[in-house]
């Protein structure tokens, strides 16, 4: 049984050797590039069809990799921490500064509840701009009102 | 000199008494509701015009509040931590799960650098959906390539 | 505008003076005792009717309390921590010991996803037993499968 | 002497190769699936009979595995932490939000004491529901009143 | 409703003014001095009789104190931490050094389970010794075997 | 030079193969079982005689193990932390709840100082009891008064 | 009953008003300046004579201060942390860099044990030097060998 | 290029095989034993002469070790933490209890500044004493006044 | 005796009322603006002349403020932490990313030692630039070689 | 695909064998020594030309190293922490003491915003000085004003 970490190493190696981007892999399985990258990194799980198509695109014939891609992963780390890598850190700095405001706006619009991070999708887009192109990261999740009982 | 925390208390109190939403306040100063909420909570600073218009809309005539809104705030907390409030936590759970994928997609599209959290804007929108409306949170910041020297 | 913490103090004081249990308050608003206790402690929000009925049962006539009960609360603390109170600690010790097993059983039964803690309810029951009565705490939440995109 | 971690690897590998679920293993040793999964993961210890039956069901003939399953395990980690995996995190988010309410309800019903996490059992069940099936996790432990002396 | 912390302050003040030791208070309520000190500090709860007798011994006539002593306390702190006070620290240094050995000896003698910290008592004694008197701290708790299910 | 961790592995393996308890090993070197277990786990150091007798009882003829047992160990971990294993955790929960009371009783009896954790011994005993046998853990250390200068 | 923190404030205020150094106070009670400063800051306890003489030297006539100085203090903080003040930090940086070496030299000279921090004294001295005077901080504590049992 | 950790292992092994103390090694290079132990543990760097003499004394002829001893080391750990080993912990407990007093005495004697931990030396000495010998640890560093600009 | 925090509040209030910048205050005492701001915030100490001139410039006639400015401050916080304010965080992000490189370059240029943070000065300058002005922060401290002994 | 850590090992080894400084490597690729050291340590990424020239200077002919140098690195660690190495620590001590002053001076000069740590450069210089040479570390980054929206 191939570990999820070893499967990631195999997939990353093949992607690198073939000079493919996550966009290419996403096309092969008809998914978004962020989700596809998450699959390669072992944070989401694939259907058997997705797993086979991804391996086919990467020229991987080992059933153990196909199998590993379908297992429910352990997501994140043993302890939730804020990383120091600057690109990653910005994703944590934003809610440090604007989190209370985002929470208040969600509550005013929707009431007491949350944006789901499970029934959720996320996109990365380039926005052309004369003063320098911009990165747009979109979080979109179902609003879940707090159930009362 | 009114502290920023006291100014927030005064603004929140007035907003509550008058039954206004952040959308109403945003209209009064011609800004987005997330930015406006951040201003009320003391995480961003206003121009004098914005400060006056916000106070006017809220019926606050105290110059000390107008003044406090223009000061550069201390943003966030003395130590960066991950809060347990579920709506806020989701904003940290997303990069815990999808952060590596987002970073990889940004790098493939833009090269080595980051999305700015300063030359940055953020929006909260409602997306109507038959299976339940969805919250869309958009982060958009200028791509900053790492300078070499 | 009464702070949520002050409202909790008012409600707790009245409950104590009148010798009422959370079960009594739950009956008054037709909710479960756990949810009702969460409302008193400021972790969930009430409808106007619930807020009025709760205050009526407690003999509180102050509109500020009725109002505070309806506001979306900041839940939990600024940082997620494991408390040392032994009754509370047991709720964290259980997933420390059995968490991986629970996660595996949920995945085998439902696939990749989570039990919602929002579309969720929780009950505390006494189970009579000859060797000493038992506490049953039931967590029940909607299964949310991970969305793909 | 086979380490407990190596025994877990052996058991998990065999379970995967034979396509068995924890429910199947639980049937083989006449235990609940959560307890059985905990045994496989090395968080509880088995009697010799249970250890032999589990190995038999998995086709493992190595006495070292039978032996390892009977040893008292080191449960949890060297430091109690809150993990970031979303399914696991929900088990900690619930007491972050509802913990004070649960504690209060236990005390009103039983007096000063705790729900044991040792004289304890835990179940995972599927609850069919038209709006989406639900996960029910039941914690049941003996009430232990604080001894005075 | 007197807070538990205020009750502790009242009790400590009275004890100090009257020059009483915890041993004196323990005699008054027919309990051990450690338990009695825990009651004064707000870590355990008393019966009505115990509460009345303790207040009587201390010359406190306020019913609010009698009442506070009977409430189930929040024990310990919001986060379990290791204090730096040297007398307290030694109680944590001992399991840092000898904890694994203690755990192993308990398991060899009793099997898989724990010493209860609830069905538990604790004593502090002076042991006369020519090379300097010794402090004996005795922890005694019911052995609780792990339940299987 | 055999590392202390490797020596522990060798000793534990031999103890397991020969089906010996820590009580047996303690008899062989005429020490208490808790101290003997600490020696095996590498938290205390032995005299040459003790080291030889322990190895003899376990059938270990390797001088490197005899040597390792005599070295002053690094005790505990690089950072003092509270473990999540329930048996170990109880040893920390007790001072979380009763620590202030223990400290106060020691000070009333002995004055300002501490119980030594070095000039110290510790015992684990079984106390027979009709309602279930009890674990008694005794900490006994010399009282050290704070020196003034 | 004056709190220890309030006593410290009273003592510090009087010391400042009278322009006295800790050396002056140390002379008054015939103790070292470090110990005397620790007494003022509330980290050690005085005899009645010392307490009276210290108050006399400072012109404090309040018996509550005399009393507070004799109580056993809670030393240090609720959690052991490394402070960022540079003078204090150096006291922690030294064992971060040289701690393993100090430990090894103590063990080679004395065997397995520790330098007591209780049967201990500490001095601060100025060492004149042409390249700039030097601070000498001397820690001296009784060697305590680990007891075996 | 031999890593500093591997060099430490080589040096420690040789020291052990030859039955040498740090005092012996210190004599060989004409340095103090604490500094010499720090060199062996990889916390300070040697001149080429010192490196050669140390290796010569230990019978090590490998140039890679000589080379490693001269490299500027990474001192301490990736994160400053307080260790639980009792001998090491005492070095941190002392400033937890007496740190404020030490800081105050340094300031009264020298003014605003620090004791350098770089232009610094440290000694371990045995002080004979009838009631048991004592460990004296001397920290001596240049006083550095805060520069103004 | 005015606390340092209260003195800061007094100074900040006066500076704000009079519309003065730190540059103006720096001119008044003939110091750099960064050092002057540190003095106002209570992180450095002034000579009597500097204290008087600063108060004179701010129109403060209270001797207690003059006095407070001359006291040796407790610098930083009780625990060294990384703040979340983005401007402050950048000062920590830089050594997170470039710290190893800076350390290596210092060592190659100067040998084993450090840049002093005490015999140190720091400047903030604006660098005009066509693509947007730049902030230059200069740290300059005496090189301190590690002393051997 | 060579990991970034392995590439660093290869580069460091070659640099050491050839006796080159970072200044030499910086000359070879026409970059600053700090940036070049960051490249070797894996904290920044090179263009293909830079990667080839660096490898050429070091006599490395392996394409895998050239390739690794061009990949976007994971910068810093999984969790932002303050290291205990004294040279590195000083880079954190400075903002602990002077950070608030630096922030205030930046705001007074530039308004609400930050110094970029991305559009940024850093230099290490030796400043000759009669009282001992000084290390100058210059941080220079573009001022980024907070965007409003």
TrEMBL record, chains A, B, C, D, E, F, G, H, I, J:
It comes from Halosegnis longus. This is Cyanate hydratase. GO terms for molecular function: cyanate hydratase activity; DNA binding. Catalyzes the reaction of cyanate with bicarbonate to produce ammonia and carbon dioxide. NCBIfam families: cynS, PRK02866.1. Residues 77-149 form the Cyanate lyase C-terminal domain. The lineage of its organism: Archaea, Methanobacteriati, Methanobacteriota, Stenosarchaea group, Halobacteria. The gene is cynS. It comes from the Archaea. Belongs to the cyanase family. Keywords: Lyase. The active site is at residues 90, 93, 116. SUPFAM superfamilies: Cyanase C-terminal domain, lambda repressor-like DNA-binding domains. It catalyses: cyanate + hydrogencarbonate + 3 H(+) = NH4(+) + 2 CO2.
């Amino acid at each position: 049984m191939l570990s999820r970490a070893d499967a990631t190493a195999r997939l990353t190696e093949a992607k690198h050797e073939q000079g493919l981007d996550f966009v290419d892999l996403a096309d092969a399985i008809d998914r978004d590039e962020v989700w596809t990258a998450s699959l390669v990194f072992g944070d989401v799980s694939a259907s058997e069809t997705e797993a086979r198509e991804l391996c086919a695109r990467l020229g991987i014939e080992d059933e153990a990799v196909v199998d590993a891609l379908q297992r429910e992963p352990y997501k994140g780390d043993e302890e939730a921490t804020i990383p120091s890598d600057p690109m990653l850190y910005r994703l944590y700095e934003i809610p440090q500064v604007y989190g209370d405001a985002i929470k208040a706006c969600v509550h005013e619009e929707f009431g007491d509840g949350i944006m789901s991070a499970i029934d959720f999708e996320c996109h990365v887009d380039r926005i052309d701009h004369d003063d320098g192109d911009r990165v747009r990261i979109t979080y979109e999740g179902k609003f879940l009102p707090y159930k009362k009982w």
